Please model this.
Amino acid sequence: MIKTLLSLDENLASSIALRYAFHQANLIPAMKLQAIHVEEPDNNKKHSAGSGWVRRTWEKGMEAAGADEVNRLLKTENVSCTFVGPPKVFVGDRQDEILEELVIGGYDMYMEGDLNTSVVADFNNLITSDLYRKSPCPMMIVKNLITSNCAGLLCGDGVDHQKLITNYLKVFKNSGLELDLLYYKFQENDEVIFQDKEEAGSILIEAEKTLEAAGMHARRSQVISGSPERVGDYLRNYFLVASTFPSRKGPRLELLAHVLAPVFLCRQ
Amino acid sequence: MRILVALDEHSYSAGIINSVARLAANTWADVTLLGVRPGGAAGGTFSMNHPLVNTFLGYKDDFLGQFADSYSPYTRQEQVAIGENNGIWEIPGTTDNSRKELKIRIRSGNPDREILEEARLTESDLIVLGCSGAGDCQWQGLLNLPEKVAKDASCSVMVIKEERIPKKIICCMDQPSVTQASVEMINQIVTINEADLEIIGLTGPKGLKEEVERQMDGILRYYMAQQINAWVKLVDMGALEEYVAQVSRDGMIALWMGKKSMLQKIFNRDLVGKLVTQAHSSVLILR
Model:
């Protein structure tokens, strides 16, 4: 079973994430989804929470409102994927509550929608937030609803491809998705240039071997050069682009910020 | 839908006929091919033998030639007859019982004013015109005509800059009142070009407006239901000009510019002109 925690709010990003999760669950029968929603008290009104029964009543009201919100979304989307249980609704700090659920629940993946801004700082803030830094499992940022049948594994630039492949296959091995191994080279170039895998030194060749050892093979392995904007745009058609968390601000971070496809990030 | 196609006798005009015919075929539009000759003595006398008439008859044939007869909503008028009313010459291209109308109209006077006046009088939904090269969008001998038309028209305007087929259509929206007609127009343009669609939500200091987000959601669903590959993206208003300059290299830019649109402020008249002139791609201004 692949336990996936799906964060939902009543907005476009969540709507896209929910439909994408539905599609993913169809590809991976072992995937079991659990929806979560966190109602954050309005900071300006936090003193209204009171204490004792007043607080309990207030929290119950907030929870009920949150549950209504998620149920409205689920009803609107009318997706038929099976959730392991009713949506979990919490009141409190969003990141803290989700993180706690991820730790307690032993999830294999966390998924949330996030509309792409291509602003590198926004993306960096997201993946360096407490939730992402402390998460015990891989994180999926759903930027768009893509239904292609190929995933791209982004290697190089400090990526431990063995960890990446292991984490990716743990979730997606039986999905039927094809795989491309990608190596990104930054170039201030208006065109996207493709080169043979040898241009990446031994990285893509070793990654191919790791895949083969796991009983999989890459559809193709290639080096892609260009600006992060251009290459990010080129990668838009992948079902997802997987990589490890960038450890520094660099070309890979910029590329992942610009990718319009969903991004799967794991720790190394 | 009524499409006004503004043409002159140069190759950039001839080059847009195929695109117009494909758009007309998908939208079942009434189409006017409009020519403007210099007013007064400079225009000389006008008759069937005028070179402009021959050019436009050629455009008409090219247009009708794009339709297989059995599927054509345009029933060709075999006899060429020219009539005049208030100084405007007209040649019907289709018969009276044709499902959709094609006609040639030749006006005289200041070209940009005449194009806008014709669009107003005929209540056109869309003006289509071509122009020279990607970096310098002009009509020969007429300074900044495409730019003037794009800025001043009260209906939608499409400036086709080259025959290159756009790989994606980039639609920018910042207000919820997007008409079904404009959504459908984008649908047709995406379909005709087999292009991808990028829906850009414009964000301000308070992020994306809730009603715009809802509209984006609706539009995204609509296009996905039509089997159109659509992506969403958010762009800050302040970075829009830069973004448009960047993406216009391989896509067609479409700006939804309703009355409530902030784009009216960001892309004020001069900037619309700049976009038309400088964008590498064709440009669609949706009003």
Summary: The longest strand of chain A covers residues 31-39. Residues 2-113 of chain A form a domain with the Rossmann fold fold (CATH 3.40.50.620).
